[in-house]
TrEMBL record:
Signal peptide: none
Entry keywords, A to Z: ATP-binding, Cell membrane, Membrane, Nucleotide-binding, Transport
Gene Ontology terms, MF aspect: ATP binding; ATP hydrolysis activity
UniProt protein name: Glycine betaine/carnitine/choline transport ATP-binding protein OpuCA
PANTHER family recorded: NITRATE ABC TRANSPORTER ATP-BINDING PROTEIN (PTHR42788:SF7), TAURINE IMPORT ATP-BINDING PROTEIN-RELATED (PTHR42788)
Entry GO terms, CC: plasma membrane
InterPro entries from the UniProt entry: AAA+_ATPase, ABC_transporter-like_ATP-bd, ABC_transporter-like_CS, ABC_transporter_ATP-bind, P-loop_NTPase
Organism listed in the record: Pseudoneobacillus rhizosphaerae
SMART domains: AAA
Topology in membrane: Peripheral membrane protein
Coiled-coil region list: none
Originating gene: opuCA
Amino acid sequence: MLKLNQIYKVFNEGTMDEKIALNHLNLSMNQGDFVTIIGSNGAGKSTLLNLIAGKLIPDLGEVIVADKNLTQASEHKRSRLIGRVFQDPMAGTAPTLTIEENLAIAYGRTHRRGFSLGVTKKRKSFFKEKLESLQLNLENRLSAKVGLLSGGERQALSLLMATFTEPSILLLDEHTAALDPSRAELITALTKKIVEENNLTALMVTHNMQQAIDLGNRLIMMDRGEIIFEADQDRKKGLTVEELLKEFQQIRGGTMTDRAVLA
């Protein structure tokens, strides 16, 4: 479902500020894989998601999604195949539009025929059904402006909008980091439920090591633009945060001290 071949990306090349963000990185994901990504600040995690989404283009290498070579494709062109939820709850929705209008826009990414902001009775019934799965009573607030929702409610809506069109790959960019603990727990549980029920292929960046261990069937650790450690489903079952820190120390010969990573 996703194949990254020898991805290389450098910023400020040829200057004193040159930084290799991704260093000939390779990654393959099959249908239904849920991969969590950890690593210290500057490891290349967000750059990796931006490159898959099309916000960035690699200097070298290939990006293949659902057997389509999208290396040079625009972010807009990729949006039919890729869903994304950002760290900022304000980023994934249009605050001045209603819940049903936001859902109609998301629906229109993969259902172009007859698309308009007008919501038919049949489509409204579909939206209500999907919203009920969130268990936040949003199905009874279709005409409410999204800007009036709480951060947790907006993030839950963003998650639903990114997934109910069944994207080829779902990108989760620290999507619980800006929420309070109770709301973060809710969104984490919803993420697990939605990904599993729909057999989605998902790639999630998180600074929370325990969350990275608990979710998904694969875990990768990044540092300096490279994947330096990977754990499959069997390896993850008994994995602890302490063991991950030891792995980093053994591989890099140093200590992972970033406080966010130790959360």
